[in-house]
Design goal:
By secondary structure, the chain is mainly alpha-helical. It has nine helices and two strands, in the order ααααααααββα. The protein has helices at residues 2-26, 37-48, 53-64, 68-72, 76-90, 92-96, 99-108, 116-140, 163-169, and strands at 143-145, 151-153. A two-stranded antiparallel sheet has the order 1-2. The longest helix is centred in the N-terminal third of the chain and has 25 residues, at 2-26. It is elongated, with a radius of gyration of 18 Å.
Length: 175
């Protein structure tokens, strides 16, 4: 699951880079384009190396779990705030270059340059990341049959999360 999670994160970054290329063609003066593609590639490289897949998914779990409900409800501001908070802590040099303010300004612009299909893809990718995270928590808790025949866990992992509740919320099977 963690390897699949890492692929999903990579796909989001690749979609972002493709979207930036499209924006260059549609709106060559877009403020987002002031940041070279190399900045995004650096963030991708810094995010993945030398971090293993389990660290990536566990960091995502810790950072994103408080906003899952808002992501499910497609609260764009909550998603942007979440992403910027993670980026600000992990890559302070991007903030010093004004990237955080530029992203907020671009997102709040009613004529923003990003396409609706890109936004839809990002929401779908985040849904996938959350579903994978739920499965990861379930597996990390070592599900087993109890002596009385009921289902239970043998390991304690992310106790603040109700797997049952999240499975229902995100439409995942209970197995």
């Amino acid at each position: 699951i963690s390897a699949q999670f890492k692929k999903e994160v990579d796909a989001i970054i690749c979609k972002l880079l493709k979207e930036l290329e499209c924006i260059k063609l549609r709106e060559p003066d877009c403020p987002l384009l002031k940041f070279p593609t190399s900045v995004f590639l650096f963030a991708k490289t810094a995010f993945f190396n030398p971090v293993d897949s389990n660290q990536i998914i566990e960091t995502f779990l810790t950072e994103s779990f408080p906003v899952w409900e808002k992501i499910k409800n497609r609260d764009e501001k909550a998603l942007v705030d979440f992403l910027l908070n993670v980026v600000v802590r992990k890559y302070p040099m991007l903030v010093s270059q004004g990237m955080d303010e530029m992203v907020i300004k671009t997102i709040n612009d009613p004529h923003r340059p990003v396409s609706d299909s890109f936004i839809a893809d990002v929401w779908n990718k985040f849904d996938n990341l959350i579903r994978l995270s739920i499965q990861y928590v379930h597996i990390s808790r070592c599900p087993r049959k109890k002596e009385d025949g009921s289902d239970g866990y043998t390991c304690r992992f992310k106790p603040e999360m109700s797997v049952k509740k999240e499975l229902e919320r995100w439409g995942l099977p209970k197995n």
